[in-house]
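Bug #2210: token dump truncated for Fucolectin tachylectin-4 pentraxin-1 domain-containing protein?
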Amino acid sequence: MAGEIGNIYFVTFFVVLFEIRFCSGEYCSYLNGRTSVNKGDCTELEHCVSNFDQTGQCPGNQCEPGWMGPGCQYVNLALNPLNKDNVFDGDMTTHRSINAATVNLNGTFIVNAFIIHTRWFSGSLTVRDGHQNVLLQKSFQLVSPTIVLPRPVLTDILNMQFSYSIYIKEIEVFGGRDVALWKPTNQSSTYSEAIPNGMIKFSSDKAVDGSGDGNFGNLSCTHTATGHSKNPSWNVNLGKAYSIIAIKISNRNDNQKRINGFKLFGTTENGTKLPVYSDPLPYHNRNEIVLDSTHMPDVPVSVITIEGPNDTEKILTLCEVFVYGKIHKLS
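Reproduced locally. Full output below:
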């Protein structure tokens, strides 16, 4: 196990030398994300393409492709390999005239809102799910681009029909906010590696730092210690109860089998630990694992726990755990 990171301590030393405490420009942008230094000063706007203004907001909500909504904090379910049209490419400079659109979500998700980026629209819009059930049918002037469905729906497709052809820059579907980002974490043990100037610890917080980089040498992945007899585990405390829409786990580029056979749990506010998912693919290597809404618990949870498999290594490595959720509202 020794030497997994080689000489990467030179990179770490370089980064430390150039850490500065301010919140502007690329320091707070998605290119670098927040660090242990700036996370207390910056907002959760890692996915803003442009520099932040002095209020800490993302001007014009020009988001990195795949992110959307206020502060670019919400994942966009419409940007996925199943949607090839320009209106789903994450680029606001491309557009075309359409009178209908089919949005494939690449999974089954709870949806309650979407955004249509267009110059202006006054007419009728009908939205149906994959079974042709009508989710929304109304006439309106589209001034604000955000459209909220009368009630959330579990679906894999949204079919949209406009009363006439309109120019559309982009259609985006809200998939929830990453409610695990920079939240408190723990793991059953922590692997450390010696370098000439000290030790590098692959601590539990590296799975919620906003980076899904699977290159272990870039120091953004967790790693439990070796030589333990118990199953390794990791958890994140979300701080409050959320209705979970989906969870995505970014795996490391090598040693991918260590995640195989994992189990995922959610803990409710009253302390009940619910089984959420048991991995059925113990022999497949995967860069990432996406669990859609069909796997999520029916009740809000405040803690997410991942337990590694009971194999010979007993090592759990996570490069990022994205927990897409929304605050549960009492009816």
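Output looks complete on our side. The first strand starts at residue 67 and ends at 68. Marking as cannot-reproduce; reopen if the truncation happens again.
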